[in-house]
Structures are given as structure tokens and as C-alpha cells.
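User:
Care to share a sequence and C-alpha cells?

Assistant:
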Amino acid sequence: RSEGIDDLGLRAGLEAPVDAFGFLGRRVSRLPTLRQLLHVALRHHSAFSSSGRMWVDSQGEQVRVCLAFTACFDGDWQQADHYVLMLILGLLRLGAGATWRPAAVQLQTIECDAVSNFEPLSTARINFAQPVTAVTFPRMLLDATLQPPRGDAGALDQGVDAWQASAPADDFIGSIFQVIQTLSRDGYPNTQQTADVLGLGVRSFQRHLASAGVTHEALVRRVRLATAVALLKETNARVLDIALDLGYSDHAHFTRAFRRWTGRSPQDFRRQYQASCDRGQTDRSKPSPGSTHPIPHRHGTGDSWGGA
């Protein structure tokens, strides 16, 4: 807004290569046809975006790729709508060609000159304030052969474990663990804070935990362990700095706690992990428990680390 870039969402979406969007982008961009690309993208869309739903519908010889936002945020969400429109166009161009232009598009947002004047949409009939954001294309393009992107196809296989590990937990204890893990970015939450995020009263939350045979304190300890393991594996941070980041008052207290958790000191754990990597027995690309949401770096060590 401050720079007056009304077509920012359009330009960003147009320049975003599909295969750059992590595992799903690499997966769909290497399929043989547009039909298969859309099938896989639709099947997995909900695992990558909670902001809307995506589907395909058809009328005769015309097909639409549709996306409907479930929340409209505030007055500036139109940039997200424009961005998504161009991502859909990018998917279709993998089969239709890099310069293909749609005959018709729809947007959920209100009329905007930036869209009407955007060159890649110059031949399209544009309808604003619609129930869905959609791009219409000829049915015959469904069987168009995709042009595979350049890049290392081996990276696709290497990303499978990380992709699967990033999925939301499908059990009660695992999901509460992930909530506590996320809240721990700003210090470890107490029972009240976790219950508030879940929309539960403290007593009701504690009853659920008791039924599952676990306490809030035990889950917080698991989060600390998972974060410690991730930092020892994935960074060169000093053990003292990791201890301080995890809220321990000193090196010795952390070492005693870590030994109780794992049976090894932090130094021994790191040495054995690095030795196994050197022998090729450990896949460094596979995330450790807790590596999705590590806590923030509160005591600078000169190292940079974060979640994927």
C-alpha cells in the first residue's frame, strides 16, 4: 500500500515457479499430464492450505479450476486472491504453454484496475465479486503433456520424509504436543495458556489429559527434549547456549535432565549422531522431533536456525 503497488499479488504469483513450492510443487510439476497434476494437487491441497478449498468443475468442453477462500481477512486480502489466481494460471501453463492466456477468470474480490489491465489476462473475460476464484480452460488441455522443470529430481525423493513429518498429528496427545511446541516460541506455556488456545476450560482440558494418561508438564518436558535433540543435530550451537535457550539456569542442570531423557550427555549424543552421519547411517534431511517449531533464539551464539 505504501508504495502504491496495486498489482503486487498478480506479479508475485506470475513469477512463482510451481516446482519451488516445496514437496507438493515438485511432485505435481513432474507428473506427465495436466489431468494428473490437477488430480494430485486437489487431493493434497487441504494438507498445505487451511485458508480455502479447491476443486474442478466442468461444463461441456470448458473446465474450471476453482478456489474459494473460507475467510476474507480484511480489506487487503485481495492481494492474496490475485496471487492465488496467478498460481492457478501457472499450474495450467505447465501444460498449455508459458504464454497461454485464459478466456475467462473469476475473482472473489471486487473490481480492480490492476487485474483488468494485467497483460497475462488481457484476453480474458473477468468477473469480480464472485463466489469463487477460478480460471476456465478448454477440456482438451487436460491431456496436455507437461514440460518437466529443470532441477534435481532426486530432491523429490529426499523430501518425502520431511513432507510426511510436517503433517498435523492425528491423535490427541500428538496434537497437544504440537500446540505446546508452537506456543513455546515465546516461552513454555502453562496449562491455562494451552487451554485458552484450544478453547477449553482448564478443568476440562485437564480431564482430557488425564483420560489420555498424560500431564501438561510431561508434554512440556517432551517439547524441551525434542527441541534439544533438534538443536544438537541441526546446529553447531554450544551446549551452554542450548541450555539457556531451553530455560535452564546452567549447563549442568541441562546435562542432568538430558541424560535422564536419553541416557547420554548432550555432548555424547551429538558426537554419536555426527559419527552415524559420517558413516551414512542417518539421513540428515529427515527432521528431528521438534524441528518443525523450534523455540526462538534468546541467547545469541552466532548460529542461525529455524523451522521448515
